[in-house]
């Protein structure tokens, strides 16, 4: 007798049909579908840095739009090749807004404040107050608010729409050059009117609580300001030290993990001085790569912590650090 292995027996077919009929009405079988949950986990991540505790919260994603219109100096073919090689979309550069809250043991320090209620880039921003509370942090407990610069997505959440401070017990830190520029109607170009309005709305009500910081200054214990001008006139990055560990908060030194990294002299449409910004980016990334200092990138994929390394072609590559869920 020859047995065909590619065809089921008549007895097998009959048994299968009977089993299907018997289980058709049972709960949990194929006919019953679980509902879509349509919800996400709380938007925060906690980590340790030396003797300090860091909590990453978010102001939400910021869809920048067509990368070809926002990142300048690459041909469309060059840009598309970079994006394709890194599995990134060609039509919309979506940035994160990774906000650090650092508990040093003596101070609770917030770095940048997001967009507030401004919806210049769509409805997905403005989540800072919600994500802080999800992380168990009361805005009243913030001792210091440190701003890398006075652009809408970095100072926009300092105050509520009625002018009351979101962080009523905090001292605020920013460079004087950025404050003076972005709150002055005589200096800000008309095309940046939303930036002027946002800076005035958020910085003028807290003027008496503002402390102006300078290049190289350790203005809070373990937090040193480093001038990184170009993206804005007084843009700062911050070197954070706790115990034996360092972390460099990049602000807007680079907005994109590929387009401003592989060729760091590529320019960005929102830079005040694109040429200066590109040279600053090259200088600072070279220092960070050579010293293997971990970085926190405000606009990179969540939660934005990783390393930069030279790619051997005059540019850099970003290596995200895996999230560690145990503290």
UniProtKB/TrEMBL annotation:
Keywords: Hydrolase, Metal-binding, Signal, Zinc. Residues 96-299 form the Metallo-beta-lactamase domain. It comes from the Bacteria. The keyword Transcription does not apply. Gene3D superfamilies: Ribonuclease Z/Hydroxyacylglutathione hydrolase-like. The keyword DNA damage does not apply. Residues 1-32 form the signal peptide. One of its GO terms (molecular function) is metal ion binding. Belongs to the metallo-beta-lactamase superfamily. This is Beta-lactamase.
């Amino acid at each position: 007798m020859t047995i065909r292995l590619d065809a089921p027996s008549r007895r097998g077919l009959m048994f299968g049909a009977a089993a299907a009929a018997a289980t058709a009405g049972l709960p949990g079988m194929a006919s019953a579908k679980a509902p879509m949950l349509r919800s996400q986990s709380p938007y925060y991540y906690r980590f340790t840095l030396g003797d300090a505790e860091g909590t990453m919260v978010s102001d939400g994603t910021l869809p920048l739009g067509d990368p070809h219109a926002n990142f300048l100096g690459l041909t469309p073919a060059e840009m598309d090749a970079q994006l394709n090689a890194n599995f990134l979309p060609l039509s919309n550069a979506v940035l994160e807004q990774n906000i650090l809250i650092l508990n040093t043991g003596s101070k609770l320090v917030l770095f940048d404040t997001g967009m507030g209620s401004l919806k210049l880039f769509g409805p997905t921003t403005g989540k800072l107050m919600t994500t802080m509370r999800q992380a168990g942090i009361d805005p009243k407990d913030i001792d210091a608010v440190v701003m890398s610069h006075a652009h809408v997505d970095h100072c926009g959440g300092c105050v509520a729409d009625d002018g009351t401070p979101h962080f009523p017990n905090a001292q605020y830190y920013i460079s004087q050059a950025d404050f003076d520029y972005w709150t002055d109607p005589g200096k800000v170009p008309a095309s940046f009117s939303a930036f002027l309005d946002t800076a005035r709305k958020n910085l003028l009500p807290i003027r008496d609580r503002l402390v102006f910081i300078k290049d190289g200054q350790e203005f809070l214990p373990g937090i040193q300001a480093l001038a990184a001008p170009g993206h804005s006139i007084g843009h700062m990055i911050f070197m954070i030290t706790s115990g034996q560990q360092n972390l460099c908060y990049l602000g807007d030194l680079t907005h994109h993990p590929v387009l401003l990294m592989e060729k760091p002299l590529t320019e960005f449409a929102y830079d005040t001085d694109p040429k200066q910004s590109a040279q600053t980016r090259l200088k600072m990334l070279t220092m960070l790569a050579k010293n293997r200092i971990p970085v926190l990138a405000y606009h990179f994929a969540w939660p934005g912590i990783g390393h930069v390394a030279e790619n051997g072609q005059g540019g850099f590559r970003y290596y995200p650090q895996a999230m560690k869920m145990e503290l």
